[in-house]
């Protein structure tokens, strides 16, 4: 592989996130701040998890259930952190609304709140992609390529870039769904986000089998598309509801 | 829908539980990943050497590494692009002749990997990259076309503009697998390539002969340090050095196509082992002081590259330098050379041949050999005169002595008569499997007893005294294990009791002269084998002292030497005459930090014929193997990434426009 391939892999993993950043997030400084803080929160969660799991490493790679437990506890921890993130956001929202009232400016619109959620989700997704794909990409800029035994059809770097893309999508849009779910008290949305995260995580275990990545990766993308569609439907519903409320 | 997903997951659970097997190599960091992508191959390179008129050997054609796909060589193979050829030993001959004949084929050779293995060695009848008459230009007779080495192909004396590596045994099987994978070409867009890094400084700077490269300091001259030792030690205080000298000579350097795999078991290390064993046998004899003649043992290096050791020794004798203090060239009565002695075993008998130029001194020596043979009759040792159809003596250090002074009496003891018995002369396959230790023991016994006969008065000679001189066969075995095998190699007990060796696997390539040549070199200027020979000879030829003292400053004052100095402890002070003699071309002079080539001088006829060999400097030499993707695939990935990014951007812009439009409508 060469510099061209290296850049290609980086773009596959982070290109859509970059596009989202340029078109939506970069316009508003508050969203950039939200993105950065959510990236930091996600990385801190990883540090804490790795600190706890350090005692059990290295895991025996011939059996899959230690990895299942690892994924389960990590997802549970991160979902708990998401709830915390929501609580902090709520406090912040109240502060911003109070400030808006004081200076006689309008309060946060629904679209603003959704954009903040989007920025939070994007922060999670970018952190995942950087940590799990970009950090491994340095050898991809050299002349050699690499194939893992258990996934010998696709180069390793391409597999990791594609998986990072799927997860970035899942993280970005599930934050929007989650914030909406907590705000409305919608139980379906509240359960949907952790289950999709857990399912996506568990699906990566399919890659353990020989040739499993050919099945696992399309399934992962199915999860990502599912998240995207659900988010789209929810956003459309909320906005049209809001519109009707505003008019009536 | 949820139930369907649930069943799908359950199905896959069962599938992959059964297919989980095999260990993945555990990688814990990105550097681990990098390491597993590139497989480092251990091999022995062929490097670039230069002489006064040109170059020989191999190197990368420029400053960059050579990257080429690995292909197994078959007869009449056609190459479409520069490739790394995997060659088996049977095909080496055919390959190199094709290189010299077919230039379009040679253009597509990016690099060569030569296989090695025990089975290959047994199958091969003979292989010698040397010439048919090695160093014929130095012969003291007219017939320079006589074929002493008829198997010789001469391939190591040509110049190649591609790198050549000899693979180790483990690497051979790995690379054979990889070549097969390339042939099957399962994935159309990947190839397994070998990356050669044999960039030589002479190629980078453009100095393609010895004189220019020595001036530009891109190369160093070949050479080392010869060792001589006197039995008994020469007393400095006695001014009259009238005892005639009998010189026993052997050489300790070998050559091969691959610089670091020059073992030279039969030619010439078997001779050195015989010499060391003979010294050991004689050291147990009483009354060496009362002998009529002075025995001097001399081990040269650099003989394969223009008789550097012997020529330099003769020059230093003329100049009466410190290195040869105590020796007077006018009293040298006889030069007895021990050539290759490892292949004399023939159906239980050990047969040797004495090659000589007819003279009275030689006749006397031959008579002494016959006497020694008589005493060894029970062991089946025979020595005969070499055939008179030979044009003269075989390639040996004696040629240098005879060219200097044609009246020198000399005799060369070899295990062959008309042609070399060694079918692997100057190749990496001349290893311990090519020799027989009992043949070396027989030669050592012959030499030790002959020297005793020659050195003592006829009337004092008793057959019982002769039979008391016995060579230690286990010492010979140990020397073979130390000097000709990798295990235990130079870390064996015998060697490590004298020196702290740098390498374990012995290599007898002469190497280059490091720093300024001097008669008292520092240990890091002298290679392991020379240091071992010096220490061994000093130890065995030392006069036994009642007390062995630890080395101190006054050790050197009374003719003492400090041996075992590199080990823990200060070393042991012994009384012995053992010295290093620099071995390098008589056409070179080390002057204020650089080497200068002296003009040819008619008083040095051999110097006029000397090619003046030098070896190029280099930064690193390496060989790696890895998988690459086609450039088209790389570009496809880049295009894919850009497409995904642009597509996402458009989708977001469209969505945003749609939402704002739809909200505004309502």
UniProtKB/TrEMBL annotation, chain A:
Pfam families linked:
Aph-1
**Compartments where located:** Membrane
Which ranges does the record mark as transmembrane? 6-25, 30-52, 64-85, 116-137, 157-179, 191-210, 216-236
InterPro entries for the chain: Aph-1
Record's keyword annotation contains S-adenosyl-L-methionine: no
Q: Which UniProt keywords apply?
A: Membrane, Notch signaling pathway, Transmembrane, Transmembrane helix
Q: What is its main location?
A: membrane
For membrane topology, the record states:
Multi-pass membrane protein
Q: What is this protein called?
A: Gamma-secretase subunit APH1-like
UniProtKB/TrEMBL annotation, chain B:
Location in the cell: Membrane
Arranged from A to Z, the UniProt key words for this protein are: Glycoprotein, Membrane, Notch signaling pathway, Signal, Transmembrane, Transmembrane helix
Sequence intervals crossing the membrane: 636-659
Gene3D superfamilies per the UniProt record, alphabetical: Zn peptidases
Query: Domain Nicastrin small lobe spans what residues?
Result: 45-202
Show which residues constitute the signal peptide: 1-21
Question: Topology in the membrane?
Answer: Single-pass type I membrane protein
InterPro entries linked to this entry = Ncstrn_small, Nicastrin
Does this entry carry the keyword Transit peptide? no
Which PANTHER family is this protein grouped with?
Answer: NICASTRIN
Protein family: Belongs to the nicastrin family.
Q: What name goes with this protein?
A: Nicastrin
Source organism = Hibiscus sabdariffa
């Amino acid at each position: 592989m060469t510099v061209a391939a290296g850049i290609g892999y980086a773009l596959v993993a982070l290109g859509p996130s970059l596009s989202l950043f340029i078109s939506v997030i970069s316009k508003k400084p508050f969203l950039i701040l939200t993105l950065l803080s959510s990236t930091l929160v996600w990385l801190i969660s990883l540090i804490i998890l790795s600190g706890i799991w350090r005692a059990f490493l290295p895991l025996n790679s011939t059996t899959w259930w230690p990895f299942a437990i690892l994924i389960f506890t990590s997802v549970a921890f991160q979902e708990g952190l998401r709830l915390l993130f929501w609580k902090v956001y709520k406090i912040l929202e109240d502060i911003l609304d109070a400030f808006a009232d004081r200076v006689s400016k309008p309060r946060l619109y629904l679209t603003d709140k959704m954009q903040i959620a989007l920025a939070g989700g994007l922060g999670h997704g970018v952190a995942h992609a950087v940590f799990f794909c970009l950090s491994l990409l340095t050898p991809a800029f050299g002349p050699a390529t690499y194939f893992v035994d258990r996934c010998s059809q696709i180069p390793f770097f391409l597999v990791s870039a594609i998986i990072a893309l799927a997860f970035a999508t899942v993280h970005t849009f599930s934050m929007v769904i989650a914030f909406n779910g907590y705000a409305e008290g919608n139980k379906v949305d509240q359960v949907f986000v952790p289950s999709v995260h857990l399912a996506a995580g568990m699906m990566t275990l399919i890659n353990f089998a020989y040739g499993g990545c050919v099945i696992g990766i399309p399934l992962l993308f199915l999860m990502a598309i599912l998240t995207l569609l659900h988010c789209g439907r929810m956003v459309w519903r909320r906005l049209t509801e809001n519109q009707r409320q505003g008019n009536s | 829908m949820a139930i369907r997903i649930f069943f799908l997951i359950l199905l896959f659970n069962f599938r992959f539980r059964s297919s989980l097997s095999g260990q993945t190599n555990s990688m814990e960091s990105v550097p681990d990943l990098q390491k597993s992508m590139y497989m480092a191959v251990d091999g022995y390179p062929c490097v670039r050497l230069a002489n006064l008129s040109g170059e020989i050997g191999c190197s990368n054609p420029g400053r960059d590494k050579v990257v080429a796909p690995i292909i197994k060589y078959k007869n009449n193979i056609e190459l479409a692009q520069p490739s790394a050829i995997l060659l088996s030993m049977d095909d080496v001959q055919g390959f190199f002749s094709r290189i010299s004949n077919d230039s379009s084929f040679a253009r597509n050779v990016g690099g060569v990997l030569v296989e090695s293995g025990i089975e290959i060695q047994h199958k091969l009848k003979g292989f010698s990259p040397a010439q048919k008459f090695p160093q014929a230009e130095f012969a003291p007779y007219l017939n320079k076309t006589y074929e002493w080495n008829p198997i010789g192909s001469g391939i190591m004396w040509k110049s190649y503009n591609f790198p050549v590596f000899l693979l180790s045994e483990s690497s051979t099987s790995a690379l054979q697998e990889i070549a097969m994978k390339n042939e099957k070409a399962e994935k159309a867009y990947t190839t397994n390539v070998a990356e050669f890094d044999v960039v030589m400084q002479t190629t980078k700077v453009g100095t393609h002969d010895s004189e220019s490269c020595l001036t530009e300091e891109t190369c160093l001259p070949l050479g080392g340090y010869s060792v001589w030792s006197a039995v008994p030690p020469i007393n400095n205080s006695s001014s009259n050095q009238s005892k005639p000298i009998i010189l026993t000579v052997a050489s300790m350097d070998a050559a091969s196509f691959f610089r670091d795999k020059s073992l030279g078991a039969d030619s010439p290390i078997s001779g050195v082992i015989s010499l060391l064993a003979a010294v050991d046998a004689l050291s147990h004899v009483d009354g060496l002081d009362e002998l009529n003649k002075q025995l001097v043992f001399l081990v040269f290096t650099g003989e394969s590259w223009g008789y550097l050791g012997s020529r330099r020794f003769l020059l230093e004798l003329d100049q009466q330098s410190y290195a040869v203090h105590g020796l007077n060239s006018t009293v040298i009565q006889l030069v007895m050379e021990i050539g290759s002695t490892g292949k004399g075993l023939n159906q239980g008998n050990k047969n040797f041949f004495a090659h000589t130029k007819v003279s009275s001194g030689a006749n006397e020596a031959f008579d002494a050999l016959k006497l020694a043979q008589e005493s060894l009759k029970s062991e089946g040792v025979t020595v005969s005169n070499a055939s008179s159809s030979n044009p003269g003596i075989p390639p040996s250090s004696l040629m240098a002595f005879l060219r200097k002074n044609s009246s020198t009496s000399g005799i060369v003891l070899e295990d062959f008569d008309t042609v070399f018995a060694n079918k692997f002369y100057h190749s990496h396959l001349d290893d311990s499997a090519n020799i027989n230790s009992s043949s070396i023991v027989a030669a050592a016994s012959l030499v030790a007893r002959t020297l005793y006969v020659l050195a003592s008065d006829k009337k004092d000679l008793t057959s019982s005294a002769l039979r008391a001189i016995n060579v230690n066969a286990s010492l010979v075995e140990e020397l073979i294990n130390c000097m000709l095998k990798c295990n235990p190699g130079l870390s064996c007990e015998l060697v490590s009791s004298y020196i702290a060796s740098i390498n374990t696997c012995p290599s007898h390539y002469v190497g280059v002269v490091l720093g300024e040549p001097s008669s008292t070199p520092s240990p890091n200027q002298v290679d392991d084998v020379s240091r071992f020979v010096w220490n061994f000879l000093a130890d065995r030829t030392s006069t036994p002292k009642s007390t062995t003292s630890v080395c101190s400053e006054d050790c050197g004052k009374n003719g003492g030497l400090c041996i075992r100095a590199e080990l823990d402890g200060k070393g042991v002070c012994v009384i012995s005459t053992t010295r290093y003699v620099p071995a390098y071309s008589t056409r070179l002079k080390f002057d204020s930090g650089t080497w200068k080539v002296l003009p040819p001088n008619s008083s040095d006829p051999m110097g006029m014929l000397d090619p003046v060999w030098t070896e190029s400097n280099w930064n690193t030499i390496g060989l790696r193997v890895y998988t690459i993707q086609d450039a088209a695939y790389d570009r496809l990935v880049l295009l894919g990434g850009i497409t995904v990014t642009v597509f996402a951007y458009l989708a977001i812009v469209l969505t945003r426009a749609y939402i704002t439009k739809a909200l505004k409508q309502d």
